Amino acid sequence: MAIADPPPRLSLWRLVWPARTPGGFRRTARVPWIPIVIISVIVVMAVFAPLLAPYSPIDQTLRDKLLPPVWLDGGSDKYLLGTDAFGRDVLSRLIYGARVSLIVALLALTAGGGIGLIVGIVAGYIGGAVDSLLMRLVDAAFTFPAILFALLLAVTMGQGLGTLVIAISLLLWASFARVIRGEVLSLRQRDFVALAKVRGCSALRIMLTHILPNVLNTFMVLVTLNIGVVIIAEATLSFLGAGIPPPTPTWGLMISEGRGRLTDAWWVALIPGIAITLMVLSVNLFGDWLRDRLDPRLRQL
Amino acid sequence: MKRYIARRLLQGVVLLCLVATIVFFLGRLTGNPVDLMLPEDATAEDRAALTQTLGLDGPLTEQFAIFVGKALHGDLGTSIRMRQPAVEAFFDRLPNTLVLIPWALLLGMILGIPLGVVAALNRGSFLDRAAGTVAVLGVAVPSFWLGVLLIFVFSVELGWLPSGRMGGPEHFILPVITLGTFLVAGFMRITRSAMLEVMESEFVKLARIKGLSEGVVIWKHCLRNALIPVLTLWGVFVGNLITGAIVTETVFAWPGIGRLTYEAVIYRDFPLLQAVIILKSILILSINLGVDILYAYVDPRIRLA
Amino acid sequence: MMRQMPRVVMLAFVLVVVAIAPLRAQDQKGTLVFAVETLSAQTLDPILEGRPGNAVYQAVMYDSLVGFNLAKGGVGPGVAERWEIAPDGLAWTFFIRPGQTFHNGDKLTAHDVKFSLERQMGPGSLASAAASMRRTIKSIEVIDDLTVKVNTNTPQLGMPAGLSRAVAPEGAIMPKAYIEKVGEEEFRKKPIGSGPWKFVRNVPGDRIEFTAVTTPHWRGRPHFKDLTILLVPEESTRVAMVRTGEAAIASIGPETMVGASRAGLEVLAVPGTMQAVFQFWGTYKPEVKDSPIAKPRVRQALSLAIDRKQVIEHVMNGKADMPYPFATFGYTDYFSAERWKKWADEAYRYDPALAKKILAEEGYPNGFELKFANTALPGTQFMVDIGTAIADMWTKIGIKVTLKHYEWGSFAPLERSQGPLIGWASMYRTAGRPDAPWRYDGAFSPESIQRLLGDKEICTEACQEFVTTYRALLAELDPAKRTALTDHMVELVANSWTVIPILEGMGYYAINTKKVGQFKAIAGRHELGDVFERIPRPEEKPWKK
Fold first, then answer.
1. Using CB atoms within 10 A of its CB, is residue C73 exposed (0-12), middle (13-18) or buried (19+)?
2. Using CB atoms within 10 A as the burial measure, which of A79, A138, C80, C467 is most buried?
3. CA-CA distance, A208 to C23, in Å (whole number)?
4. Are C402 and C424 spatial neighbours (Cβ–Cβ below 8 Å)?
């Protein structure tokens, strides 16, 4: 009796070298090198920030304030990308800002994604009343205006990294939960799960050893697609005054601080905006490609 | 069908109660409007007097009971700051936000759907990826940055368009662009995948065999069927738009409910905050229900699910 | 004779034309558009709005019992031309200017003044001074149509100031007959005042529209025909609107000043509108006994470490001044301004070497940890910037600063309970008002919310002396003695180094010189609500470079 195999596991090799399917190689998009390069550069910037940044990002030299980037009149090679209103080096703040953005993304995606993953698996597998209850919570999370919730948290708990991460996690978990639950619902019907049940595995064991590994593909895709959401959420909350407070450099805060000076010091707001755009663009393109590779069923995302 | 609607309505009501309770208690955790309304040299006595005038004295559970009682009669309290019934304040400004939304959706579709079609027809090629990149650009650019840049370029430097506030058609252009660009990616993706699905389906192959021209095939058969999933996006997006309008309304000084919500938080205007969130939720739930019903009507497979 | 008739007629004609011509030049034309960050409650009922909102937009249509000294800033004649205190100090009599009318033609009399004051104290009033008015005012009598007597429980020397828009909004005069006739609801929809502008329309969240009165007004007859006040929360958008001419004047902060002037806009800075300060909380409490901030010299060292001129130059773009002592300004009443200016310039100088020396002497050669709360009223981003700048300056003399950020609405509850704030320093501010004692009471009295010198349990020597001086000040009628007492109070606080001014700030506006003529604001008065009527049209008085 042929027992249907579990779906193929995530294999990095397969990412770059597509499997042979009847009809030749799949004509999906080639490896998106430019996004990968951009993402790598930003990750390197974030990890090696103290080594790469020429100055401390919070050190103020009021006399040197609002200097333009090196290629413009009045710029100096002391400050390659110019300085902001406090005389802080834009390049250094950009580099450290990458670090903050990535830390926020990492923490928020772990927390929010993690919770969503657990809720999705539990709701999808166990079903019944538990499923109903959890899905009602998910609906409530969708209905409640996310930014508002973040604002409320920021004013209650005070601004800071922790508050921001919690706020963004709360924004994310519901969409993770919904998609994962959908996956689990279909996985639940598969033969290998029935087999495990027959063998007497407890629900918990099944969820951990059978369901979880098979939703990881989906999870990874969701994570990559949501990195952009997190970065933009951080920027928007900074704009509204609910993000990480100064003097910590975040890209969103840099835009927020610079937006009043577009006439005379446009680089302060423009450069971090470009950085955000490039990062989110790259991450999204990469995520799209990853999804095409791993699980075309998710195309609806 | 009726049972479906009834079930959804019931779920909606339950949801609403949940949201209302969360808002009530969460709001009050954030502080006290009295502190914000008193001058620096106020005494404790002045504080007590103002607290009483605003109806914020008394235990929390009592306040909650009063709130629920009034809410069931349609009275969601009076805005502390504006001394206007909160419901009135909401509906005064609601049309201003609502009027932006269809245009933003239209923009998203006008740009997104053709991009999706081009991508689907040229699947795997450079055009596909280029279309994808253009679409995602809308998501990647932070909307407030875009808004401020647009004002700077088109209003200040070029002088073509006004810098903000509501008004005639020229006042709509920049806010709609700011609000709508992030929808383009969603519409593009959905159109692309729906088209791809349809393009490989049986009846399209049949149409091709029958010798119908490619144009007719694409238009009449593929696109029309691909548009059905687009409807679902409306429901999701309207919710996003209503919330996301906060940023656009701030940058363009647009007097809508996004900005109203933000102010309610900053000034700790509890009645207004509660009213805004509850009413917004009702709005979003209704729109979602409407879209779902529409979808179920159009696509019989869902009805029976 | 008959042949001279045509000449006579022509002469008469010319005379008539010449007589009419100046009236013609007084024509009111055009719309003055003002863009502001917030309209607070956006209500036209004075008892429902706080001080800032009243000052920005209610002031245009309502007159205040006591007004401004337009030249110096501070208090001057208003609806009342003059006022007298009774010999025993327990009553103030206000003499009302004759010939004032409301917008519906009703005459403004003492009855309206009594009605307005009582309405401000009444149960539905959200006026912040309502409770203290109820405490201090015993009764209000109408002596005759143009005379009102306000009887108080204790001598209230500050009452006229408290009823002046220079200080507070509670002096707004509302029409008694009209409100009694149409009722409160209708009054709120169709408000009527006695000011130089009449209400036209209020669009919530968007704007308020007014039109000028056509008859002469003691505040000045407006040069423009209409006034529109726009609500535009985003500062860069406001500046954009002034650049394109959609607005003539917009309120801005120091950050956008440079950009605005580079774009060719005129920047008006109104001096003496506020003071940015930093202060120490709970320094007298036993739990911070051994903490460095319990020592006045250490606090003084922190002040010496701040290069105020740099902050003024770079954070405020040069548009700020060195401060007077806490909550005092050049126009403060009963105050030896010159003496204190000299003292302040010396005391608030930049001397990091001395600061480090003092720290070493007090036992902190390697600095210490300082917890600092940065907070700012909505829309005053520059306060946060100032806090960031001075935190950095402290770091440079070896202090390890832990900077925590609070949104204003979250900071206020902390002030009250003070638990979390004890031992902390924080940014703060004070508005420009001509009466210092009120502000000092709110900060230093043991019963006050801030209670910075001592509270009911622990009233240090400095705290006790403050209480004595303040009480004496309240009852003192002789101006020379009042000045001496005020100076003593200021000295007490200045030497305690608990609240330390950083700079004297200004209110800033970006102006499109093609849309309005040159005008001056009232010194010490940030808001323009009492200035609009005197703003000329651009052709009447172009801006001089």
1. buried
2. C80
3. 90
4. no
Residue of A152, A171, A237 to mutate for B, most B C-beta atoms under 10 A? A152
Tell me C459's DSSP state.
B
pLDDT at residue A264 is higher than 80: no
3-state secondary structure string, A23-82?
CEECCCCCCCHHHHHHHHHHHHHHHCHHHHCCCCCCCCCHHHCCCCCCCCCCCCCCCCCC
Q: Would the CB atoms of A260 and C258 count as touching at under 8 Å?
A: no
How many other CB atoms are found less than 10 A from the CB of residue C545?
5
Contacts of B27 in chain C (CB under 8 A): none
List, for residues A184-215, the tens digit of each pLDDT value.
887 777 777 788 888 887 878 878 888 888 88
Lookup result for tokens 């529409």: B294
Contact B50 C131 (CB under 8 A): yes
- CA dihedral in degrees (B242, B243, B249, B254; nearest 10)? 30
**C-alpha span between C180 and C185 (Å, rounded):** 11
Tokens standing for residue A72 = 């413009």
User: Residue A256 corresponds to which amino acid?
Assistant: S
Candidate ranges B51-60, B186-195, C136-145, C367-376; pick with highest mean pLDDT: C136-145
Helices (H), A189-243: 191-198, 203-206, 212-239
* 8 A C-beta contact, residue C213 and residue C196: yes
Q: Please spell the DSSP secondary structure of C67-109, one letter per residue.
A: EE-TTTSSEE-SSEEEEEE-TTSSEEEEEEPTT-B-TTSPBP-
From B287, which residue of chain A is nearest by alpha-carbon distance?
A143
Segment A12-67, tens digit of pLDDT: 444 444 444 444 344 444 778 888 999 999 999 899 988 888 888 887 787 788 88
Spatial contact of A259 and A269, defined as CB atoms under 8 Å apart: yes
Cα dist. C528→C229, C418, C511, C534 in Å? 11, 35, 13, 10
Q: Name the residue of chain C whose CA is nearest to A259's CA.
A: C236
Q: Residue A288: how many CB atoms within 10 A of its CB? A: 25
Q: How much of chain C exceeds pLDDT 90, in percent?
A: 44
Complex ipTM more than 0.90, yes or no: no
Residue-wise burial string across B32-55, b where 16 or more C-beta atoms lie within 10 A, e elsewhere: bbbbbbbbbbbbeebbebbbebbe
pLDDT in the model for residue C26? 59
Identify the sign of the CA torsion C286, C289, C291, C296. positive
CA–CA separation, B255 vs C471, rounded Å? Answer: 49
- H or E stretch covering C142: strand C137-144
Q: Pick the most confident of A22-31, A145-154, B49-58, B254-263.
A: B254-263
C233 touches chain B (CB under 8 A): yes
Q: Taking 80 as the threshold, does the pLDDT of residue B37 lie above it?
A: no
Q: Quick: pLDDT tens for A96-154.
A: 999 988 999 999 999 999 999 999 888 888 888 888 788 878 877 877 777 777 877 77
Instruction: Provide the token pair at C191.
Output: 């408000």
- pLDDT higher than 70, residue C238: yes
DSSP code of C454? B
Q: How far apart are CA C116 and CA C457, in angstroms?
A: 40
Q: Give the chain C residue nearest A158 (alpha carbons).
A: C406
Question: Under a CB-based contact definition with an 8 Å cutoff, are residues A183 and A218 in contact?
Answer: yes
